[in-house]
Amino acid sequence: MKTQSAALIAEQAKLSVTTFWLLQVGSYYFTDYHDNLVYKGDTYIPFPFKLPEGVKTSDGSTLDGGEIKLSSVDLTLASAVLNNTLKNAEVYIYEQWFDVNMTLIDTELRFAGKVDGRPSLNEMNISVTVAAHLNPWTQRFPRRRITKTNFPFILPRNTIITWGRNTGGGGEY
Questions:
Q1: What whole-number distance in Å separates Cα of residue 117 and Cα of residue 131?
Q2: Which partner for 44 in 10, 29, 92, 162 could form a disulfide, CB atoms 3.0-4.6 Å apart?
Q3: What are phi and psi of 6, to 5 degrees?
């Protein structure tokens, strides 16, 4: 169930609350506000985007994933899609509430996941499919793959390990 701060509940009762969304895709930070917003030291720039259905509900439901559409494609984002740098990028969606004086009341993380598959690009927008970190499959089947990138001490295949002094007699495995 979604929890809200007492200050937010009081402002919602006055009907004077404005909601804005923060979207983080990898190292790109976007907001649907008309000016830059700073949250946790990161600057979210104004950028038109459409969130998946279900994330905009305030009933405590969680989003398992969906498709985010980024409009007004620029060369930086187009190159990120074409070079496949958004693959498996972390995705966070925050909801922020402001009062009449544009003072921040509360911020809540609404979605945490990763880019699922390769984003698609056309002249109008970028479509990014996202999947939640805690979807039912990853909860049931957690995995840890050991590779050279996340465990750098793996020796190459057919490596001969010599134990003790190398005097030419035995001890090689």
A1: 9
A2: 29
A3: -65, -35
In sequence order, the β-bridge partners of residue 170 are none
Q: Where are the alpha helices (H) located in 26-154, listed in sequence order?
A: 75-82, 136-140
Question: How do the domains of the chain map onto residue ranges?
Answer: 6-140
Render pLDDT for 108-140 as a digit per residue (tens, 0 to 9): 888 888 888 888 888 888 888 888 765 555 555
The answer to whether 23 and 31 are in contact (CB under 8 A) is yes
pTM attached to this predicted model: 0.66
Q: Say if CB 129 and CB 66 are below 8 A apart.
A: yes
Euclidean distance between CA atoms 56 and 21, whole angstroms: 9
Q: 90: which strand partners?
A: 114
Residue 96's CB: how many other CB atoms inside 10 A?
A: 19
d(CA 113, CA 135): 9
Which has the closest alpha carbon to 36: 55, 51, 20? Answer: 20
153 and 161 in contact (C-beta within 8 Å)?
Answer: no
Q: Which residues contact 4 (CB under 8 A, 6 or more apart)?
A: 12, 106, 108
